[in-house]
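Entry for uridine-diphosphate-N-acetylglucosamine complex. Fields follow.
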Amino acid sequence: MAKKILVTGGTGYIGSHTVVELQNSGYDVIVVDDLSNSSIDVLDNIEKISGKKPAFEQFDLADATKTDEFFSRNSDISAIIHFAASKAVGESVQKPLLYYRNNLVSLMNLLDCQLKYNVANIVFSSSCTVYGQPDVLPVTEETPRKDAESPYGNTKRVNEDILSDSILAFPQLKGIALRYFNPIGAHPTALIGELPLGVPQNLVPFITQTAAGLRDELKVFGDDYDTVDGSAVRDYINVVDLAKAHVVAIERLLEGKNKKSYEIFNLGTGNGLSVLEIVNGFEKATGVKLNYKVVDRRAGDIEKIWADTTFANEELGWKAEKGTEETLLSAWNWEKKVRGIK
Ligand code: UD1
């Protein structure tokens, strides 16, 4: 019988792509999402891609009673992938309590239920934000974490600690933290993708909305960094490649291939690209000219980061495969679909 995986935040950007990849690999998926930053229609689009609509329940995992009641009805869950979280860096500075409550309490509620209902396995959605500006590049999983720049970033760091401390205390638990670099792009069908509410904070959604005419111009935050062309450098990873890594992590846990009870993997491409390289790549991939202007640096931004992917490549047996231009084109195709542009 197909194993059942709980995907929290499964109607969100990375969650929805992961649901599709899990279904394509033969898993049964149940999604829990409070729909605070996503739409129920995503489930229909997942079905159009995979041929299967995932089971779905709408509630907030920070509600301990509802979470417990959910597990009492779903004790056949084999593993959890925990995406559900608030993720806007700027908002987290304004509303720290909201961020700590949403992001920390939901993980603690899940862990309580894992212990009570014997669900051994969890994959946690972490971020390269835990490294801050590393002293040495590229960053390996052993690179020391730095103090977070925002409450959002701190919730990733503290949640990693909650997970590792819990796994240490309760040997029946096993977990993998996946530290994502910068996920971009959309499913090649253009049926699912990133749909930010309001003005996008992240680079690629801002680029595609500018190209679509929703924004007048892209602001490039800084061209005086110590990088190839002065603009800041990140490791941009295709969201479908990223989703596939979750399937590998789940299999690793379910098949007992993990070497330690708590493991960490960097998920990136291993290549750093500057903001201007992304802008040029977008123009080349799509043939659309972007209106952009260089402005001051954005507060809290780091200069450059990219992943050392050796451990993920060798130990997980996973590698990012898609090229940047293909990925940027997929983001544009998704934006066009959403806006009804031919
Ligand atoms: C941000 C968060 C990070 C989080 C990630 C989630 C910060 C400091 N970090 O990463 O914690 O995990 O999002 O996706 O906010 N840029 C522009 N113009 C724009 C938007 C962005 O030039 O309109 C530049 C930024 O300055 C940066 C790069 O593009 O150099 C990428 O920015 P973004 O997509 O926001 O990601 P991060 O800042 O790397």
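NOTE: The chain is about 40% helix and 15% strand.
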